[in-house]
Amino acid sequence: MHQFKKELSIPLSRIESAALVHYGNLGHLRQIHLASELGKVVVSFGLGESGRAERIFVHLTSAGVKVVPAGRYVRGANDGGFVPISMPSK
User: Fold this and answer.
1) Residue 14 Cα distances to 29, 41, 52, 80, angstroms
2) Gap between the Cα atoms of 21 and 23, Å rounded
3) 20 to 30 A from 80, CA-CA: which of 13, 18, 39, 44?
4) What is the rounded CA–CA span in Å between residue 19 and residue 48?
């Protein structure tokens, strides 16, 4: 079992909106973009983690988080003023 350090915690009540972004050559990679008072928070999922991203997005929308249209994927920290987060695989 892996141990991960908690880097950022945002209560659901403070998430203003969410978008699920498909990218990659075949649209096989995912990012979840969250809007909050922090600005845009981007959660990137690696190869083989699309299902995990989809389940998290469904959880967010089921909890009442507003869904917004997906924009373009974010490449790096200088790509538009956001907080980058990676979801490590098991």
Assistant:
1) 26, 12, 22, 21
2) 6
3) 13
4) 19
